[in-house]
Amino acid sequence: MTYDVTVDGKTMRVELERDDAGRWLCKLDGKKVVADAVVTSPYVLSLIIDGKVYEVKREPTATDLHIWVGSARYDVELRDPRAYRSRRAAADSGAGPKKVVSPMPGKVLRILAPAGTKVAAGQGVVVVEAMKMQNEIKSPKAGVVQKIVAQEGATVNAGEVLAIVE
Predict the structure, then answer these.
(1) Please, which residues bridge with residue 6 across strands?
(2) Would you say the pTM of this structure is higher than 0.70?
(3) Gap between the Cα atoms of 163 and 22, Å rounded
(4) 130 vs 62: CA distance, rounded Å
């Protein structure tokens, strides 16, 4: 199996294959890595790589995928280069307006980039508080914030548009 994986903006090619002992033989951009992997519960994977143990939690949201390794959170995009949908998405130039949406229900605490602000891809636009945790919602592309839909103090639902970046 081969995937193109983007983690916090850095893309790499991941090739996976099982050996006779049931371990995963992985290649990360051509570099070999041997991993033992066990699914311990839904959305949780226990990995042993080079004698180190990692607990990896998958957090799918309405629009994104986040991976937690310990207490560190990573934005992840996974594409199968053989799939038509992935090839079409890779060909998308990112032209046109993109919506910044709330991945979870919560309360808007701060607007980090008001309308008219130039932002880079992955730059924080809005901070949403959910379950007493503050989550910085980032721009999906480089551009200019055209409109802020959410207001500070407002309650938002998962998938609700917070801003538009063009």
Answers:
(1) 11, 77
(2) no
(3) 46
(4) 15
| Distance, CA of 95 to CA of 31 (rounded, Å) | 34
Give yes or no: residues 8 and 80 share one domain: yes
Mean pLDDT by 10 residues, the chain (166 residues): 84 86 82 86 88 89 80 84 53 70 89 94 90 88 92 89 92
What does the pLDDT read at residue 60? 75
Residues 81 and 109 in one domain: no
Indicate which CATH number applies to the domain containing 104.
Answer: 2.40.50.100
DSSP conformation letters of 82-114: TSHHHHHHHH----S-EEEE-SS-EEEEEESS-
Per-residue tokens: 87: 């090839």
Helices (H) and strands (E) in the chain, counts: 1, 16
Side-chain half-sphere of 136: how many Cα atoms within 13 Å?
A: 11
Distance between CA 98 and CA 8 in Å, rounded? 18
Task: Report residue 23 CA to chain centroid gap.
Answer: 26
- Tell whether 82 and 9 lie within a shared domain: yes
